[in-house]
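call fold(seq) -> tokens
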Amino acid sequence: MNPASRATATAVVLATAGALLNAAAPAASAATTCTAPTYKRTFYANTTFSGTPKKTDCDSVIDQNWTGAPASGLPKDNFGVRWSVTRDFGSGGPFAFAASGTDGIRVYLDGVRKTDLWSNTSGTRAKTVNVTVPKGRHTLRVDYANFTGAASVKFAYTPRTSAAVDTVRPLAPTGVSWDQYTGQPPGIDAVLAWTANKEMDLAGYRVYRRVAGTSAFTRVGTTTVPRFSERPPQTGQSYYYEIRAYDKAGNESAGSTDQGPVPSRDLTPPAAPKLTATGTEDANELSWTAPSDAVSYRVYRRAAGAADFTALGDTTSTSYTDAQAAYRTAYDYKVAALDAHGNAAYSPVVTSTRTIAPPQHVTARTDSGETVVGWTEPAGTADYVVRRSADHADGSRDWATLTCGSPTSATDAAGGTERTCTDYSGRRGTTYHYTVLRKDSAGRWSVPSAEVTATRPGEETPPPAVTGVAAEPLEYGIRLSWQPSTAPDLASYALYQQQDESHDPEYLGKVDASTTQTLLPWPADGTSYRLFVVAVDVYGNSLTYQDDPDVEDWSVPVASVPVTALDLRPTSVPDDTAGCQTTTWRTAAGIRVEPWCPYEDTSSVTGFHVYRWDHAEGRFVRLTEAPVAKSRDGWFWTDTHAPAGTTLYYMISLVRADGTESFADTDYVITPPSAS
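ret:
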């Protein structure tokens, strides 16, 4: 911008040397040369731009304000100023011509008027015109006429850089040259230079590279200056480069002429081989993958965990047998892949130990809710061990020997043994890893087999406590009932009884999951109990009793109910003087009653009577009319008229030859209801 102060300073200079400048004006005008994009500016003492200019100079920006004569020899009114510049617009494109000022302003492109604000006015006017400038060199001219009063004029031309407006690609860079430089560390650098583009909206340059003999370019860098250097991959290949200009709208030019070929040194090693190692009884067997440009391999070994490797030898094969490794000693191995230039790439380190062959074809499957580990072992196997480890998030293992359940074995076609081992002890729903080791007939153990993984089916959350437990005492037992469990995987109900708090609950048995009541055939002897009903799921999970003084007896509260049996016991029993016992049990024919006298001399006994307690009458009633004598079929009597659905108490008496009776103790029998 050329403010008024700049015009004032110029006027001072003109005033001090006015006569000399006026006299030399024509010669100065002819001699003045301004380099684009600087304007050449000429002053006229009229508004028709006729005659010899009063002054000629260079002006970088059109932005003027004059309150008097702009130069010595000019009037303060009715003067004209003309700016002109010829420049290279590169690829051209859309521009905005912005003009403003007082009085007359006209803008020309190659002599064609683009803006016309030409009138005598005291006010400031402005106008912006969008112009598409063709590529190449063009001349801009701005004419300004001041008719009267203060003078002001402003003009600028700027590219329109919106991607929606500017679709013109920059010109391809020219004058491109290349050189190479050998630097440190060893390698060849490509050094590129070119002539700066002329576009006013240029954003920068993109550098592309391709391998000689190919057509696909890869962009390798950008720059805002016309030079670039880089080190291409040192693979021994040659490369070509091209430069493309791009503008602020994102338009990219065509490529420059290709530069090259730029050579490179082969400093790139082959791809790293993938190494595997297997320990056998005779050697450690190594094998690895073959990178495409490897021509040989070098094998290294060290004692496992030691610091330094030792080279074992070179080979062009992809396998190596280390028969010198000590038996049962672990070694680390690595392999270097070498290309024709000696560049090396190393495999990851693997460890191997000479040992007998471990079990093969190891599998882990789930079967019937359990995990079954299977494997094949060769002939000559004396023993085996299955090891198990839980799955840890950090990948670590805590191997422990597994106690095999339900082991099976079979002989395969090769004479080896196929075995299985069932894991019953793992937590349900938990993932485990398994390996198998074998011992040969010489007592040598193998390394672990390949690791296999399985999740033991199920879970270990017990069903919730049963609700609604009730007990009804009957003459022939206790009817126990409860509400159905809400557990979706319910399998059964476990029943327990407890005499009192000083005794642990006793397991009575289980009933099917579809059952919500059962009959406990207990005698009506007036005994009190507490009964428990515990839900059990298909995986055997249930609330459990813990006889531990430091914890509650049940893991969580369980459903229970107290009950007292009906009391139908005899209230009056003769003294037990017989030395025998009364024994009873139910048969298809009735209640069989017989004496059991292992310690009684019965040689003088002629028979026995049978008595049954009559609860209603409160006395024992004799059921036999005559004493029951011994016979070939045994010494017993059957009550064929025993009442149903109650608890019956029986007593026998021994009858001797002199007619005297001695009574044995009582025994009971429970009779089901007649409909049972």
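The domain at 4-159 is CATH 2.60.120.260 (Jelly Rolls).
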